[in-house]
Amino acid sequence: MISIHNEPQPTDLGDVRVANRAVVLRHVRLHAPCSRADIAATTGLNKATVSSLVTELLDRRLVRETGLTGNRVGRPATMLVLDGSPYAALGLQIGADDLVVVAVDPGGNRLLTWRRAFPAPTAGPADTVRALVTLARRAIGRVTGQGRTVLGLTVGVPGLVDTAGGVPLASGLGWRDVPLAADLRTALRETGFTVTVDTDANLAVLAEQRHGAYAGATDLVHVTGGVSVGAGVLAGGRLLRGGRGHAGELGHLCLDPAGPPCPCGRRGCLAASTALPAVVARLLPDATQDGPVTDYLPELDRIVASARQEDPAVLAGLAEIGRHLGHGASILANLLNPEAIVVGGHFATLAPWLLPAARAELVARTLAPQAGGCRLDASTLDSAAPALGGATAALATIEAGRLPAG
Ligand SMILES: [Zn+2]
Q1: Most buried among 262, 384, 400, 403, using CB within 10 Å?
Q2: Given this model, what pLDDT does residue 220 score?
Q3: What separation in Å is there between the alpha carbon of 377 and the centre of ligand 1?
């Protein structure tokens, strides 16, 4: 189980009940369909407690009954599964050329995924907040129109995010000191639900842990590919945030002091050679002739087409970018020894040409044999992983055992 916030320590009976509710919900999420007796037997909670908690969860429609099963010793039992159909949680992400919103329900069902073309790197923070709010309102309108209550909304940003949800620096967007969470709350007005901001990488690894190819892994890294390159790190099942929330800035590791300039003002950062704008500039020198790229999809399509036609310059460029990516991955492997590093965004799109070189570099630069068992793979989630993770994160209070208001 992932703890994205400090877990409450039970101090009174109310807190104990919250903690027990979380245990029951988690059991149903992982083992549904299951009976009350199954829950009691596995969790060690007594049957009366389980029965009372389940009654409450049925009342709030966080679980539902699916009928009887007689396929066990003893009398038939009523089976339980997650419900959550009266609720929705939203996640949004700010991409290189789009904004994405995803809604999920507490049962893990994806309710909607909407993209809107939007050039955040050239638009600036004020217009980006307006566009985010417009997109969020449309999604809120859709799910509330289905009779659902919104539980929370989390926005993923490619940059540094502080504990108040502010963005001290997002160099790929050209942002500095943007009070994003506060601005969003002001613009959305009285929402009745929590509005939070996190790094896109942290949210993406939450999505991986719940929905990706390595779901359930406790030591896992998601490396985002977009205007920036960030690492969301799960270590021992917990999200690694660091003292002020700024862990995971993989993109600004200096790989070569004499390397190209980075938007952060330094030289030779991993992002300076592997972030999406750098990749397009490296492989398609004509792409920026008429100004900054505002729509990357056609450019990525051109790169894929050239690679498929085995254009030697493009293949050599992709192999070089792959080696840089593998170098960055080896630093993660040496420091963290994860089970897997999964790459998203344009790294996933270009994986067939990047990953062979990246894997060789990872193994060559990691001290432990075979990179310490670390796999390097493309994410199997679509490029909405941060938004999906944002929606997942917005369910955290329910999963921690707090009942929704009402
Ligand atoms: Zn940098």
Answers
A1: 384
A2: 98
A3: 24
